[in-house]
Amino acid sequence: MKRAFDIIFSFFGLLILSPVFIILSFAVGLTSKGGVFYKQKRVGRYNKDFILYKFRSMRVGADKGSLITIGGRDSRITKVGYFIRKFKLDELPQLFNVLIGDMSFVGPRPEVRYYVDMYTKQQMQVLNVRPGITDPASIAYRNENELLEQQDNPKQYYIDVIMPDKLNINLEYINSRTFLSDIKVIFQTFSAL
Prior knowledge:
Helix content: 40-55%
Strand order of the largest sheet: 1-2
Oligomer: single chain
Structural class: mainly alpha
Number of strands: 4
Low-confidence stretches: none
Largest sheet: 2 strands, antiparallel
């Protein structure tokens, strides 16, 4: 049922949002150098890598310095990028990931290999399900960038505090998830925006 929901709603989401995709593509493409889409290798279900798609919100090559975004006004983010990130519009291309089966609407957010390599055996259980566009941990840490901005060592704070807590939240979600709880997470996500 979950996969059928993902296929149907991602297909119709892409169809209905196609005008938004066109507008955002022009906005991103005309205001900064580089491609419209940002592609990054993430770790998905069963510990397999896949390519995650987003609208590009940073300058080309900006992810070479740091894998985490710090603060609401990270200097690597473009002007249009700031706007599309604020309203999570940069995440819309992940509907393609959902449609092809790399992701689901609800599931633990996919992480980069660098951080997954730090997971404990128990934490690796989050990889037993499809990653999602949203999850309970993303809602709980919707102000993650601001939290990191307040730290002397944001990367270490992410590794020591935020990442383990997000994984715990997602492990709880995985152990008690239902189709109705997924719908609730989707509505909570819209409400948080």
